[in-house]
Amino acid sequence: MQAKKRLYVGLLGFSLIMVIGIAALVWYIFTHRDILVNQVLLIGMLVIAAVIFAVLGLGILAIVMMIIRCKSFPSLETLTQWANGMLFPLTLLTGRFFGIDKDKILKSFISVNNYLVGNKNLALRCQDIMILLPHCLQNSECKFKITIDINNCRNCGKCKIGALKELAEQYRVKLRVATGGTLARKWIKETKPKAVIAVACERDLSAGIQDTGELPVLGVLNCRPHGPCLNTDVDVAEIERALLTISKGGCL
């Protein structure tokens, strides 16, 4: 079931309101003290807080505008990144306060991210795109190590690695497997892609999207019929759709 983008955007806005409320409380406490130094400090803090709130508010507004208009605004992308980066942890705390499942919020965040990336109309060459897979997609009983070289896969059909390898060869995209965030960052640094299609669970995907900064990342959630990090699965067709979304004419 597709996640609702409004959940994350709504929590993002509510988090900003909470921060403004805390700032207003600090203002109230300081204004009831008559020491000149405190008043000077308060004015300075107020100016800084006003700038931060304005930036975060514009960032949230930019996200809403991009969703409504189905269009990316490059001049506002930095604001959206700041809003996400600064309010994301508070958004999770806000969701916990309201009893909303964390994975549901993360899924909504990934949905918002994918929507914004999809509306960039990137039209990249497939050679500039990397598909990043988690090692848990590989069958746990397989003897062949694929994290260093995906070509070690024997295409036995017991997991989706073989099918994804064929997809990568068909479209001539880079394909890598990572055991965690450190190796994922290593592959990104070495291959220098202009966009990434990443497969993972909600928590790893959201962390990876936050970590990559300006690099466009399309997230594809894996399926976990045996629990987390063990013999997971993914819809190959969904990865292909993500590839077609950001590539130039499908690269074929």
Give the key terms:
single chain, 252 residues, alpha/beta, Rossmann fold, 2 domains, 4-stranded parallel beta sheet, 8 helices, 4 strands, 56% helix, elongated
General description of the model:
The protein is α/β, with parallel strands linked by helices. The protein folds into two domains: about 5-120, no CATH class; about 125-250, Rossmann fold (3-Layer(aba) Sandwich), CATH 3.40.50. About 55% of the residues lie in helices and about 10% in strands. It is built from eight helices and four strands, in the order H-H-H-H-E-H-E-H-E-H-E-H. The protein has helices spanning about 5-30, 35-70, 75-95, 100-120, 160-170, 180-190, 200-210, 235-245; strands at about 130-135, 175-180, 195-200, 215-220. It has a four-stranded parallel β-sheet, sandwiched between helices. Strand 1 (about 130-135), helix 5 (about 160-170) and strand 2 (about 175-180) form a beta-alpha-beta unit. It starts with a helix and ends in a 6-residue tail after the last helix.
Give a quick rundown of the structure.
56% of the residues lie in helices and 9% in strands. It is an alpha/beta fold and 252 residues long. Helix 1 packs antiparallel against helix 2, helix 1 crosses helix 3 and helix 1 packs across helix 4 (102-118).
DSSP summary, beta strand count:
4
Biggest sheet, open or closed, and with what strands and sense? 4 strands, parallel
For this structure, the CATH topology of the largest domain is Rossmann fold
Sheet with the most strands: spatial strand order? 2-1-3-4
* Proportion of residues in extended strands: 5-15%
Instruction: Give the overall pLDDT as a whole number.
Output: 86
State the helicity in percent bands.
Answer: 55-70%
| Succession of helices and strands | HHHHEHEHEHEH
Please tally the helical runs, counting DSSP H or I stretches of 4 or more residues. 8
**Cα-atom radius of gyration:** 21 Å
Low-confidence segments:
none
Shape: elongated
